[in-house]
User: Fold this.
Amino acid sequence: MTSGPLEGVRVLDISIALTGPYAAALFADQGADVVKVERPGIGDIARWVGVAVNGMSSLYLVCNRGKRSIAVDLQHPEGAAVVRQLAARADVVIQNYRPGVLDRLGLGYDDVRAENPDVIYASLSGFGPEGPYRDRSAYDTVIQAYGGFAANQADPDDGVPVFLRQTAADKVTALYASQAITAALFARERGSGGQHVQLSMTDSVVSFLWADSAANEVLLDADGSQHSSFVAGFRPMRFADGWGIVTPTADADFAGMCRGFGVDGWDDPRVATIGERIQHRELMAEIMDLVYASAANLTMAEATERLEAERVPFAMILSPAELPDDPHAIAMGLFVEADHHVVGRTRIPRHPAQFGATPATLTGRSPALGEHTDDILGELGLSDRVAQLRADGVVA
Assistant:
């Protein structure tokens, strides 16, 4: 059986909610041995957020797949000592507490590095380790507000900020974290040794947003005549039986869209090129109104046939409930269905990266709270102390 690209890498996940856990789950997909530290009794708060079955939420299931759970009280000196032992043998430690919290428990970067100088220690936080906001609690909506997501999604007519109906700031940060940690592991392999990787949700959201949605803030000498986000003008297209989106960016796409919907005027020199279309926005708006009016008379199937014939970029708008039954999603194996020992039947997306030689897989199952406590303590040589540690409330 071929193993994932991170086989043999040990990851200690001392994080909660979504940002750290999701990053660690991606490592588990890629073959790493991920041990998740949870608080006895309640565990990761993500277990209780949103839709749940038998005390395990969908959020927890997806973000903790393939991990082993140890329930240990970090506030107890012996509990902190157990986690230090785990950190001493880890390649990667991931934590997302506010700056200074784990330092006070003797589990900060300097404490771990003293026993494990080659460790890659990732500290994820809301506002970063410096500045006047460093100690603020930071949930996803807080960073969506501060980092620009909410303003970027505002309705252009009334300016009311709109929050994405998902924890986008958390997920973006998790993806940046997984890349940064992998880069640090690569640098260690080349002789750079261990290091402290610090990443804030603020940095992640701003970096993500400014790539394409803050153009006037990047080009300070721009005249400000265009929206900072070049996709701000796109809007969903209503068909007779549903919704879709057409994205006619290239000149051929624009012409093909107009032909497909039977709308004249695409060959007018004033809209023949992308540069001319930007200059003649009023004429473009008139043509697009005709396109949308024509689309409303077509079914999704009819529109699909026409747009495919013209090779125009488009998609019909599908809900998460509809996507698993779409023929393309089925053909590409986009989802994995399995029976879970706690929640029953599950369906989650496969690992997104397809490795030719070392394939990633959705390994194992998301653990019950403390499901692997005894096994993990045994690996630390503490089998003879498990009963006493449990009696003292150190572990569960």
Remarks:
- The longest strand covers residues 33-38.
- The chain has a mean pLDDT of 95.
- Residues 10-210+331-391 form a domain with the Rossmann fold fold (CATH 3.40.50.10540).
